[in-house]
């Protein structure tokens, strides 16, 4: 692996003014901080990893784990998880009691089902955790170059890296641990780092090594290298680091500029050398994550409460039964000579009725246990696993580019997908694909770029349709946005230029510009051609990028600090100004159309004042071949306009107008300006600049800012650029559909406020005319506690005023957006202010939190989850999103091209944000309704079955006798009624997937909990109570005292029990058939097959030996089948149990139909095909009123255009009056 610095040596510190410059005096040796006391105990011996394996260090390995269990903890933790469920706890108690003499059933009949249910659930947990383990291993088994001694490097797995290891990380590799940068392929130890995985920022960060370690520039130099690092202990602070480096008997101070964090990526740098400081869970990114939580859905938690109710019912009827048994024992037992009251046990002793009652209580608790369905949990587990398989295999959520599918990493939360109220989303890599496209520009007051955004096209089409169909505006416009909103396919939205798709030029990454006035050198014929050439010359010079030759195409690729710079350079290249070379002091531009033939021009870079979020601008001072010195500046329009000279504002009004237009359609804008400098003026300024650069002390940054401000004045405006922050495919359509489904969307990003706002506009979370409430901290001269109190009071005042503003707003179309940065958010998340902040946020249509740390993302998620009490979903793609993904009720990871930390911590993973629409609106809706109906039906059938046992026991003097054979009771939940309910949970569809997407308002049935509220649950329980009464009393009344067999014999207990059980099977099976809206052949097989299975079992059981079948020997063939009364009772019981439910649903569908009932009727009668008018009307109603999203933005644009048109017509009318 030995390799020296093969890339051209560029001393970037000669160019940079702020972050990278080193003063000529060594700051590293000036008063290094004393690191003593708690929090600063870390000691790292460089190049001696073996030392840290022993006491007193014992630092952890670099192996990371996101699993819930390990080999040691699996059994106790998994058992604990299972017996957190109330039903399982009850059946454990029943299984123990079944070992006693008072048990009405054999011990095996109680223990076996419990072991099966718990074992299956634990196996599912083990399988899902194994998948997490395999994801962890993919990361742990990555390789990186590590010094093995004698100046030799070899590749080693990440998990084997130890503190103190020297490693060599190459371009585009992730850093496997937190490192101290020692040197890089650049001559002065500079390297570029992409931290998108940590803070969401796409622009590259520049890191620098200490000057003393620069000689460590190849493998051999580490042969005898040693040193000691003393620094802070592991902590989650990404942006701070305090430490000392002891080397060659000198001590040098360390700061964050020398630290390379795990999961950030090396970019634009061939390689770096570093020493490991923090490994594994000690690394800062892992310190920001939390342990994998054990999440349970709201339905499952509510199910526990239902179990409590049923358990209370069980205890109540058991008490009634035991009291009744005690009374019968005391009063009746002496009269029952055949029971031998003179020779009995405590179970039946008439002299001890209380004791007998207590023993009978235990018997009753076991006997009536069928009220609580033990198979409910295992059936739900099975259904959820299969539902997860359906999600995983959904081809509509398959991403062809990456080859990734959706993955349900845990199946416990399937139904929770259908109850989401608020989505908290990361920005970079989640909403955006980290790519900028040059779209439009304004040069010398003239707009260029003929493309139209989706908003412009949709608004124009919608208004055209409204104009042609004014009699029915809503219906005529519906057809317009049904397709563009969902996908924004190019075939549906044509560019304004009208160029057919098949004739368009090949797509150029970063360049989406079309205007023949500038293309192909045509700009040379424009009247302002000199200004145009200067405009693109600024784009090609004002940057810090590095050109790299693409050997395949022969063209140039650009490694830029930010995607914006890359887009500008591509645009300049395509329009004839190609940046092709950079040296230590010069930049070379190949100008294609300026002269008669392509000419390569050299521009000397004298100074570079880089961009920062505080400055909001970037400048370069360049000198051309003629010796002319110019300052070229690009930055935010608000900053550039205030720095213009009086003579430099010639194009200001037109440029402002164009910038407003670009902002309205969601484009990111920058203004461009320049200034001619005289030689003497520049020389004088440069002396001040060098003086500020070499200053030592805390005032250095302020002096540099002041000197830069001196020269960035009296600028001449030349134009503006508009780039599109490329959203991931389908993001606007997805957000629009989710908004129509009634979901609230928050954006939490580590990016700066301007970038987040631009993205908000691009994906229609923000729009022109939306009132923005910006919460920020004030500047104060106070110190310590006084400053904090002053800031908090100011923050509280801002929130109070904003809340009043929202409440007093009268315009029904008004929309508010809350935008807050990380510093302000830190105060808003404190206990005494977070309620007011949340109340304000809930009132706003959009919420965007900028500059937030990973910890703050998790805290905001917790605030929304706990403050609203509603289901939250967090979605992200980077390690900085792990905290909020784990904190939310549902965590969704984007399995993109970056690291897999978000995916490994998530509950569900998808390849792109747009698939969230189908995951929630389709699968979430289905899973919620399926699980809700399945649980309600389970309680219905078990109440209907279990109470008949109680009625019969009361009928027989509370004897503890079961009317049913043991095998009937064992098979009732396990086989005879399990498959229909499983088919309900797997295949039930109130509407198809296409209808779910066309009628997004159907999703609100989940958040409103229409199918699992207490009213519906109690109705199903009441239905079970009614059915149990009908089954028992109809059977008993008809059979009591009647001749049953041809020979005149009456029915014995076996006949009564089997007849009653047949009625139960038919009643509950017909009930589930009436519940289903959608039948497949599998459902037909399971539903009707269950009834057939009962008869087949009865036939086989009766044919078995009397030693096995006992009283049921040949009961079907010889007793039941020949008896007409058996079939009459079956028919009457089935009808009596299901006619009330049939009447109820008939009445509901006729007079009070739910949304899906209406759609089902329309589809059944094919009105969607035959009556398009009605179909479009119903579709237009199937949207929740929203103030965000593409549709809301189009509606707002139309309102603005109508207002302008109305004013214009009014003006013309006034002028026309004589």
UniProtKB/TrEMBL annotation:
Membrane as UniProt keyword: yes
Record-annotated P-type ATPase C-terminal domain positions: 903-1153
Gene Ontology biological-process entries: phospholipid translocation
Active site: 426
PROSITE patterns registered for this protein in UniProt: ATPASE_E1_E2 (PS00154)
Keyword Magnesium in record: yes
Binding positions for ATP per the UniProt entry: 426-428, 565, 611, 634, 668, 749-751, 851, 857, 880-881
Coiled-coil positions: none
Major location (coarse): membrane
InterPro entries reported in the protein's UniProt record: ATPase_P-typ_cyto_dom_N (IPR023299), ATPase_P-typ_P_site (IPR018303), ATPase_P-typ_TM_dom_sf (IPR023298), ATPase_P-typ_transduc_dom_A_sf (IPR008250), HAD-like_sf (IPR036412), HAD_sf (IPR023214), P-type_ATPase_IV (IPR006539), P-type_ATPase_N (IPR032631)
Chain positions covered by the region annotation Disordered: 469-501
Enzyme class: translocase
Keyword vocabulary terms for this entry: ATP-binding, Magnesium, Membrane, Metal-binding, Nucleotide-binding, Translocase, Transmembrane, Transmembrane helix
Membrane topology: Multi-pass membrane protein
Amino acid composition bias (Polar residues), ranges on this chain: 469-479
Compartments it resides in: Membrane
Cofactor: Mg(2+)
Catalytic activity: ATP + H2O + phospholipidSide 1 = ADP + phosphate + phospholipidSide 2
Membrane-spanning residues: 86-104, 110-127, 306-328, 358-380, 938-955, 967-987, 1017-1041, 1053-1073, 1085-1104, 1124-1143
GO cellular component: plasma membrane
Single GO MF annotation: ATP binding
Stored PANTHER family: PHOSPHOLIPID-TRANSPORTING ATPASE, PROBABLE PHOSPHOLIPID-TRANSPORTING ATPASE
Family: Belongs to the cation transport ATPase (P-type) (TC 3.A.3) family. Type IV subfamily.
Protein name: Phospholipid-transporting ATPase
Organism: Platanthera zijinensis
Gene: ALA4
């Amino acid at each position: 692996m030995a390799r020296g610095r093969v890339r051209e040596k560029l001393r970037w510190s000669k160019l940079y003014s702020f972050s990278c410059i080193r003063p000529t005096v060594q700051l590293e040796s000036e008063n290094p901080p004393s690191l003593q006391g708690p929090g600063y105990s870390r000691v790292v011996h460089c190049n001696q990893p073996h030392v840290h394996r022993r006491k007193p260090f014992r630092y952890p390995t670099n192996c990371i784990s996101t699993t819930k269990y390990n080999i040691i903890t699996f059994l106790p933790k998994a058992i604990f998880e299972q017996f957190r469920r109330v039903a399982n706890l009850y059946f454990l108690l029943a299984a123990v009691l079944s070992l006693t003499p008072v048990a009405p059933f054999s011990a095996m009949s109680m223990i076996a089902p419990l072991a099966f249910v718990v074992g299956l659930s634990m196996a599912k947990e083990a399988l899902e955790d194994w998948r997490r383990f395999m994801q962890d291993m993919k990361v742990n088994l990555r390789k990186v170059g590590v010094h093995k001694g004698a100046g030799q490097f070899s590749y080693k797995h990440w998990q084997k890296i130890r503190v103190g290891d020297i490693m060599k990380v190459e371009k585009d590799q992730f850093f496997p641990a937190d490192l101290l940068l020692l040197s890089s392929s650049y001559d002065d130890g500079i390297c570029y780092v992409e931290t998108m995985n940590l803070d969401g920022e796409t622009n590259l960060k520049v890191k620098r090594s200490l000057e003393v370690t620069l000689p460590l520039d190849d493998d051999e130099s580490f042969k005898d290298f040693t040193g000691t690092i003393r620094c802070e202990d592991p902590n989650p602070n990404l942006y701070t680091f305090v430490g000392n480096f002891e080397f060659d008997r000198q001590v040098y101070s360390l700061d964050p500029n020398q630290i390379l964090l795990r999961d950030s990526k090396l970019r634009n740098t061939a390689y770096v050398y570093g020493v490991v400081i923090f490994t594994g869970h000690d690394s800062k990114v892992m310190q920001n994550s939390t342990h994998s939580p054990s999440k349970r859905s709201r339905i499952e938690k509510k199910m526990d409460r239902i179990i409590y109710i049923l358990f209370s019912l069980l205890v109540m009827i058991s008490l009634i039964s035991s009291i009744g048994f005690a009374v019968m024992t005391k009063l009746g037992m002496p009269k029952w000579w055949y029971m031998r009251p003179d020779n009995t046990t405590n179970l039946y002793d008439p002299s001890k009725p209380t004791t007998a009652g207590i023993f009978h209580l235990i018997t009753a608790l076991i006997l009536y246990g069928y009220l609580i369905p033990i198979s409910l949990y295992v059936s739900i587990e099975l259904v959820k696993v299969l539902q997860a398989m359906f999600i995983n295999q959904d081809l509509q959520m398959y991403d062809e580019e990456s080859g990734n599918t959706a993955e349900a990493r845990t199946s416990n939360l399937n139904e929770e997908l259908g109850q989401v109220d608020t989505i908290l989303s990361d920005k970079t890599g989640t909403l955006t694909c980290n790519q900028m496209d040059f779209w439009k520009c304004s040069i010398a007051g003239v707009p260029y770029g003929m493309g139209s955004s989706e908003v412009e096209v949709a608004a124009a089409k919608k208004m055209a349709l409204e104009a042609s169909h004014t009699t029915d505006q809503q219906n005529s416009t519906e057809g317009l946005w049904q397709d563009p909103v969902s996908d924004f396919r190019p075939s549906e939205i044509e560019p304004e230029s009208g160029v057919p798709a098949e004739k368009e030029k090949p797509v150029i990454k970063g360049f989406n510009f079309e205007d023949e006035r500038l293309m192909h050198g045509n700009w040379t014929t424009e009247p302002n051609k000199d200004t145009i050439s200067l405009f693109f010359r600024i784009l090609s010079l004002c940057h810090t990028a590095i050109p790299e030759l693409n050997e395949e195409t022969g063209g140039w690729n650009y490694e830029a600090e930010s995607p914006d710079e890359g887009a500008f350079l591509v645009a300049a290249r395509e329009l004839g100004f190609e940046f092709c070379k950079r040296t230590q002091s010069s930049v070379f531009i190949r100008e294609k159309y300026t002269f008669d033939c392509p000419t390569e021009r050299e521009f000397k870079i004298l100074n570079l004042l880089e961009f920062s979020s505080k400055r909001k601008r970037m400048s370069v001072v360049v000198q051309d071949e003629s010796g002319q010195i110019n300052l070229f500046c690009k930055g935010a329009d608000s900053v550039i306009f205030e720095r213009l000279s009086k003579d430099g504002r010639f194009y200001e009004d037109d440029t402002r107008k164009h910038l407003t237009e670009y902002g309205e359609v969601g484009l990111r804008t920058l203004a461009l300006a320049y200034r001619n400098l005289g030689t003497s003026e520049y020389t004088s300024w440069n002396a001040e600049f060098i003086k500020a650069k070499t200053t030592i002390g805390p005032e250095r940054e302020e002096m540099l800012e002041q000197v830069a401000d001196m020269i960035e004045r009296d600028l001449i405006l030349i134009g503006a650029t508009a780039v599109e922050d490329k959203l991931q495919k389908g993001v606007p359509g997805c957000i629009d559909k989710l908004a129509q489904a009634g979901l609230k969307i928050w954006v939490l990003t580590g990016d700066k406020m301007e970038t987040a706002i631009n993205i908000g506009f691009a994906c229609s979370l923000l729009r022109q005319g939306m009132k923005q409430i910006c919460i920020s901290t004030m500047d104060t001269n106070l110190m310590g506690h006084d400053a904090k109190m002053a800031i908090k009071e100011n923050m509280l005042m801002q929130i109070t005023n904003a809340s009043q503003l929202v409440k007093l707003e009268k315009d029904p179309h008004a929309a508010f957006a809350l935008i807050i940065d990380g510093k302000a958010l830190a105060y808003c998340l404190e206990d005494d202010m977070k309620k007011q902040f949340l109340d304000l946020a809930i009132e706003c249509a959009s919420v965007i939190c900028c500059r937030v740390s990973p910890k703050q993302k998790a805290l905001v998620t917790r605030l929304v989850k706990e403050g609203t009490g509603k289901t939250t979903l967090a979605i992200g793609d980077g390690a900085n999103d792990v905290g909020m993904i784990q904190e939310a009720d549902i965590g969704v990871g984007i399995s993109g091209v970056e690291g897999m930390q978000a995916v490994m911590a998530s509950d569900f993973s998808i390849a792109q944000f747009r698939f969230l629409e189908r995951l929630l609106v389709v699968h979430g809706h289905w899973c919620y309704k399926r699980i809700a109906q399945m649980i309600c039906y389970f309680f219905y059938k078990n109440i209907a079955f279990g109470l008949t046992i109680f009625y019969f026991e009361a009928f027989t003097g509370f004897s503890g006798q079961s009317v049913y054979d043991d095998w009937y009771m064992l098979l009732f939940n396990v086989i005879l009624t399990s498959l229909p309910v499983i088919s309900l949970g797997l295949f039930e569809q109130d509407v198809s997937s296409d209808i779910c997407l066309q009628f997004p308002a159907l999703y609100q049935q989940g958040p409103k909990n229409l199918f699992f509220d207490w009213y519906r649950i109690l109705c199903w329980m009441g239905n079970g109570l009614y059915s149990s009464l009908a089954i028992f009393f109809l059977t008993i009344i008809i059979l009591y005292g009647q001749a049953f067999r041809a020979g005149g014999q009456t029915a014995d207990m076996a006949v009564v029990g089997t007849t009653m059980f047949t009625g139960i099977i038919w009643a509950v099976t017909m009930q589930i058939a009436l519940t289903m809206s959608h039948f497949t052949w599998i459902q037909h097989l399971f539903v009707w097959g269950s009834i057939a299975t009962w008869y087949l079992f009865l036939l086989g059981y009766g044919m078995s030996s009397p030693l096995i079948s006992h009283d049921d020997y040949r009961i079907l063939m010889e007793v039941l089948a020949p008896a007409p009364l058996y079939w009459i009772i079956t028919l009457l019981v089935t009808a009596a149990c299901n006619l009330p439910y049939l009447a109820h649903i008939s009445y509901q569908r006729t007079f009070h139909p739910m949304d899906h009932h209406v759609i089902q009727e329309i589809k059944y009668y094919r009105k969607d095909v035959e009556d398009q008018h009605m179909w479009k009307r119903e579709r237009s109603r199937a949207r929740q009123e929203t103030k965000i999203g593409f549709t809301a933005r189009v509606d707002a644009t139309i309102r603005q255009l109508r207002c302008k048109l109305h004013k214009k017509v009014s003006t013309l009318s006034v002028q026309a009056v004589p």
